[in-house]
Amino acid sequence: MTSKKNHPSVQQFKEFVKEHPKLVQEVRKGNKQWQEVFEDWYLLGDKDVIWKQYQDDQPEVQKEVEKKSDFMSQMLSAVKKMDANTVNHHISNMSSTISTIQGLFDQFGLTKGSSQNTSNHNQHPFSFRKD
Description:
mainly alpha, 0% strand
């Protein structure tokens, strides 16, 4: 499989488009063509004032805040949709399951305190004393 290397200016243009996402929207709407955008970028440069309108208006910090607020609104709506009786039922089931598991550990001696006692006892299974 051969990999085709792009011209450096094409790579730079791709980076430029990533920084100006509204250009993609304009091309998808049919208002502009990629060839036209590339020619303008090549002739005017990426620092020209005409590109400001295509930049992403929101800084990265604001995007993070929006993502967090979207998450919080989703969580809030999920909590609103929950039935309190169902949640209580699930919590009681989990509690009884944990109690059962703890009982099994106690029955088979798998707790921390008992494991130390049995490990010392298993090292010397017979008690020998010198006369």
